[in-house]
Amino acid sequence: MSAQEEVLEKKKVETKESKLYEIVLYNDDYNTFDHVIETLIVVCEHTPEQAEQCSLLVHYKGKCTVKTGTYKDLEPRCGKLLEEGLSAEIV
């Protein structure tokens, strides 16, 4: 009877932690609730309820985080919000 040895290789698994960023939407005196809601639905993939809640927070609190993710994902979204006339930045 022969003995078999199994050698298990230890593999170092490195998880690359990506820093998460946020798009913050700011209140302004120009855009309507409907425009803000429609834009958030399209650009940030919000549900209608989520977009409405964000628009109310922006109106009453002055700002609201509308999307969280990697910078690579948020940059084009923030650009589209700005193109639509909204005030937003990535933080």
TrEMBL record:
Residues in Adaptor protein ClpS core domain copies: 16-83
Gene Ontology terms for molecular function: peptidase activity
Keyword field: Hydrolase, Protease
A Gene Ontology biological process term: proteolysis
Family matches, as InterPro entries: ClpS (IPR022935), ClpS_core (IPR003769), Ribosomal_bL12_C/ClpS-like (IPR014719)
Gene3D superfamilies per record: 3.30.1390.10
Pfam families: ClpS
Name of the protein: ATP-dependent Clp protease adaptor ClpS
Originating species: Salinimicrobium profundisediminis
